[in-house]
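Technical note accompanying the year-one report. For the benefit of new consortium partners, we illustrate the data format agreed upon in the data management plan: each record pairs a sequence with a structure-token string. No post-processing was applied to the example shown here.
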Amino acid sequence: MSRWDLMTSDEIGAMIATGCDLAILPVGATEQHGPHLATGCDTISAETIAQMAADRAGVLALPGLAYGCSLGHTEKWPGTFSLHPGTLTQVIVELGRWAVANGLKKLLFLSGHGTNDAPLRSAILQLRYEFPEARFATMGLWDVSERVGALYFRDGEDIHANQGETSVLMHLRPEMVRADRAADVADVTPGLKFSYAMPATTPNGVVGAPSRASAEDGAAMVEALVADLAAWIEAARAEDWPRVPEATLTAAAS
């Protein structure tokens, strides 16, 4: 058992006391995912992968945060809720403080949504300042490893509700997928100099080729995600603090 909200206070305390000082906080989103994917895609994916990897690596998984920074979806399509970037940063900082208060020394924010990245990194700057004895990291699902990233970005650079995201849910939660409504949209962003909100790049909220998705593809992606994230966790648990080199004086050139 590694899921924080299904454990008792005594069980959590005992696990931390025996040296389990790392936890994963999944950070998702509630937002439109085109006509074929449910709005909880980013939350369910991050939360489930976090749980599976935590079980495999023997660390703790916190309950997922179901709201992220989704302003780029605007109000064009129904279904999106968004926090302001500063609000998400503050929420993560406050959760990080409670994590440290509970005895955790290492916290990984696992994001299922791309534009959560900047608020999460801002939160880490604050947490690192407040708790120099603790360590914090953030990554998106697609950042877990090179092979996972290659699977996510097969059909575009600025993907959304694409083959990878659809396949993962076809495997994990098929009731969240309406495969008969999947419509492919090519990524038009490569080479552009600025970033754009989704209404400027897609007619239906999709970027990529969800028509190519399958439960079998999703099973392979999930296994890669869980295996590589568990390996990352094991390496993170073993990581020592960096050694600060001694300064050496060099003579000025004459």
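Partners are asked to follow this layout when depositing records. Residues 4-238 form a domain with the Rossmann fold fold (CATH 3.40.50.10310).
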